[in-house]
Amino acid sequence: MSLDPLLAAPLQVQIHATAAIAAMVLGAIVLLLRKGTPLHKALGRLYAGLMLVVATSALFINEIRLIGPFSPIHLFVVVTYGGLAVAIWRIRRGDVVGHRAAMVTLYFGALLLTGAFTLLPGRRMHDVLFGAEAGWTPALVAIPLCLVAAGLLWRRLMPKRRLRLA
User: Fold this and answer.
1) What residue ranges do the domains of the chain occupy?
2) pLDDT reported for residue 140
3) CA distance 101 to 113
4) Residue 9 and residue 125: Cα distance in Å, rounded?
5) Does the pLDDT of residue 156 top 80, yes or no?
6) Which residue, 135, 123, 108, is CA-closest to 23?
7) pTM to 2 decimals?
8) Residue 67 pairs with which residues in a beta bridge?
9) Using H for helix, E for strand and C for coil, what is the string for the chain?
10) What are 46-89's pLDDT values in tens digits?
11) Rounded distance, CA 73 to CA 79, Å?
């Protein structure tokens, strides 16, 4: 493991990666904390702010250009902005279950799912964690493990909705 590829990256990439790692750690803490407490609310606001930094900084990373200056990964910027808006709107309406569902989905979709694909060879985080010469083997092990673990945690953390029978 070497931080050299990240330290040699442009500033917007460093900001993006730092905010994403901080959001990943803080988001896990918020998801595991007791809900509704002042600490949960304060850390939740900090997490939302970090997610805005992650999404906004992504707009300035244009190394893969497929649609003008953007790539399909930039769709997650819209997903992140939308997910945060829905989560805030739901909690302000008193819909705790909807808020939780939006925040859990945002954490797993916008951070863990996209984060898993930064482990592909040729991507910066692959080079940071495994080294530029590591090839596909570590990615082929790490990505499925990340996705399975994320899926299992997502199922466990998602609020259970009761089916209404008419």
Assistant:
1) 8-157
2) 85
3) 16
4) 11
5) no
6) 108
7) 0.84
8) 70
9) CCCHHHHCCCHHHHHHHHHHHHHHHHHHHHHHCCCCCHHHHHHHHHHHHHHHHHHHHHCCCCCCCCECCECHHHHHHHHHHHHHHHHHHHHHCCCHHHHHHHHHHHHHHHHHHHHHHCCCCCCHHHHHHHCCCCCCHHHHHHHHHHHHHHHHHHHHHCCCCCCCCC
10) 999 999 999 999 999 887 666 767 777 788 899 999 999 999 99
11) 10
Tokens 């250009």 found at: 65
- Burial pattern 22-49, b for ≥16 Cβ within 10 A else e, equals ebbebbeebbeeeeeeeeeeebbeebbe
Place of tokens 């954490």: 107
| Residue 132 neighbours by CB distance under 10 Å | 14
Residue 105 Cα to chain centre, angstroms: 9
